[in-house]
Amino acid sequence: MARHPRDVQLTLTLPPTGAALRHRIAEAIIDAIRLGRLHPGDALPPTRALAAELGVARAGVVEAYDELCAAGYACARPGSGTLIAPGADAAAAAGAGSHVSDRPTPVPDTEPTTAAPTWDLTPGCPDTGLISPDDWRRAWRTAAAAPIHPRSAGPTGHPELRHALAVHLRRTRGILAHPDELVLVPGVDSALRTLAAAADLAGRDIAFEEPGYRNARRALEMSGARLRPVGIDADGLDPAALRDTDAAVYCTPAHQYPLGARMPVTRRADLLARAAESGTLIIEDDYDGEFRYDVSALPALRSVEGGREHVAYIGTASKIISPSIRLAWLLPPPALLQRVHDALRRTGENCCGVTGLALAHFIESGALTRHLARASRTYSARRAALVDALRSRPALMDRPGIHLAGIEAGLHMVLRLPDRADDDAIAAELGTRGIAVPGLGPYRTDAAGPRGLMCGYAQLPESQADAVAGAIADVVGRHLDR
Ligand SMILES: Cc1ncc(COP(=O)(O)O)c(C=O)c1O
């Protein structure tokens, strides 16, 4: 900055906008900087002089100078008045404003205007309307009444939620975990990135279900791991397909995503035995393990003998509450725990402490147990209605290659289609009829992989199942007859 500020003869024209006077003066000065009429180090005119010249109240000029100082365009120096700050020319050229406009930002013309579907069967969306508003509000009131933490929680934070989750996991999934072994992350993809860093998976092979969960694939690939697709059958991932060179295997044994298989106990034991032998880390994504219908519970891999040493278990609030709250939990093998903490400290990924506290109260008060009981009953009825509605259409279901899969658990089923079916085109046409029901295309990397429609029923009222099934039967039938 110049030692003796240059006095400039400044002629300003205020923009004829409806903005407040201080904004208009500040904008005119930024314009003068942009046009090179004012340079860093120049002194702005005394406020009284500029006010007189512009014919405005002096207070408006004082406020404009304050605004320019706050935005970094100017700085007040005792004895020298207000000077244009270093770098103000670059900021003005880049178009940075001195304030946030009062006017609403216009919606760009290119904004997509897709109408909301009438029936949304996109999997992954629980019915949040089933959550008791009283219980939910009570949990948040308790969280809001707690003191605000002055720093972010970090990987060893959220003690209340880790404690509540340890109890929840024991009761609902048969998993024994000390609260200190649990790590909170803002989603399953974050858990996977963390595991990849903690277990040094970059550049190594990970056996990955094919077809499989797209976000998990992306998270692991972005961490530098080499994903090796492993086909699945009616029992999920086949342990015989594992290789000694697989550093890890990603699987969804409770309800294979997307096809819905439940991995039988014998296969679980086999998978663990093989992993123990080859030192492969099993990544168990238990995204919807809380929901099953008319079938007995299968133990989580983590709870099977040997699971504690070889399984990194991941659970999430996305299905039991909503994906919008961004909370998931990771239970790594004890040998990896410290490295998981270190990895999270390096990435800085963290969860909201207040949300964590609210969920902890929701669980501890018994509200989650009540919610899961109510939600399971509702989902069970919705699932049965959709299954019945589809099965009552022999013109659809009697075609070769068509059957329902994955109906025993979770929040979605798959209407499997013949290999020649263009499931994504069928899904697109159903979209035009107001039914969002994705095809399997986004989940397979093998173009010749299985065909089908992913039918999430969590938000589909029983009364609507028949209309949806009718439209699906109609569109699928016409596509297959072409
Ligand atoms: C297999 C699988 N894992 C995890 C999730 C949810 O993950 P998150 O906790 O990141 O919302 C989903 C959501 O649909 C899923 O399908």
TrEMBL record:
Region (Disordered): 95-126
Keyword terms: Aminotransferase, DNA-binding, Pyridoxal phosphate, Transcription, Transcription regulation, Transferase
Residues annotated as domain HTH gntR-type: 19-87
GO MF term set: DNA binding; DNA-binding transcription factor activity; pyridoxal phosphate binding; transaminase activity
Lineage: superkingdom: Bacteria
UniProt entry tagged with the keyword Zinc-finger: no
InterPro entries in UniProt: Aminotransferase_I/II_large, HTH_trans_reg/aminotransferase, PyrdxlP-dep_Trfase, PyrdxlP-dep_Trfase_major, Tscrpt_reg_HTH_GntR, WH-like_DNA-bd_sf, WH_DNA-bd_sf
PANTHER family for this protein: HTH-TYPE TRANSCRIPTIONAL REGULATORY PROTEIN GABR
Protein name in UniProt: GntR family transcriptional regulator / MocR family aminotransferase
Native organism: Rhodococcus maanshanensis
